[in-house]
Amino acid sequence: MRGEAELCGAAEFYHSARARAGYDDAPMPQPSSRPERFQPNPRVRLRELADEAVLLDLESGTYYGLNATGRRVWELLAGGHSLTATLATMESELEVSAATLRADVEALLSDLERAGLLARID
After folding, report:
1. pLDDT band of 111, cuts 50, 70, 90
2. Residue 55 in 3-state DSSP?
3. What is the pLDDT of residue 21?
4. Sign of torsion, CA 44 46 47 50?
5. What pairs with residue 64 in β-bridges?
6. Helices 8-19 and 68-78 sit at what angle, rounded to 10 degrees?
7. Measured between alpha carbons, how far is 38 from 13 in angstroms, rounded to an integer?
8. What does the pLDDT average to over 32-56?
């Protein structure tokens, strides 16, 4: 075990989605032309801990923490759901506006992509 890092986007996602529960009139952003499917990096392992999860990058030995909501995003995307399907599922599970949910999920995905844990696929 060389180090431990918390994906700040995961924590922000959790608190943002819960703290800003409610609906607003902002339209949901349209999906971009970027691919909507994601694939976990094969060197990443997931370990579930109660409602949370730890992602281990086998190459670097670094651990990344996901809270329950971040874990749910990972679970859906790794299970083959598109980004649109993941957002629809999570919107039905959480009391949060579609616009807020999309922004928070996109922030988390950016963190996961930047860390090399998850990649967009065609």
Report:
1. very high
2. strand
3. 41
4. positive
5. 5, 55
6. 110
7. 18
8. 87
Of residues 21 and 35, more confidently modeled: 35
List, in order, residues 6 or more apart from 119 with CB less than 8 Å away.
Answer: 38, 39, 41, 113
For residue 90, give the nearest of 3, 28, 1 by alpha carbon: 28
Better pLDDT: 10 or 66: 66
* C-beta neighbour count of 82 within 10 angstroms: 15
Pairing assessment for the beta strands 44-49 and 52-57 based on DSSP bridges: antiparallel
CA distance 70 to 11: 8
Instruction: Give Cα separations from 79 to 70, 76, 83, 89, 92 (angstroms).
Output: 14, 5, 11, 13, 18
Question: Which pTM does this prediction carry?
Answer: 0.71
Residue-wise DSSP of 67-106: -HHHHHHHHHHHTT--HHHHHHHHHHHS-S-HHHHHHHHH
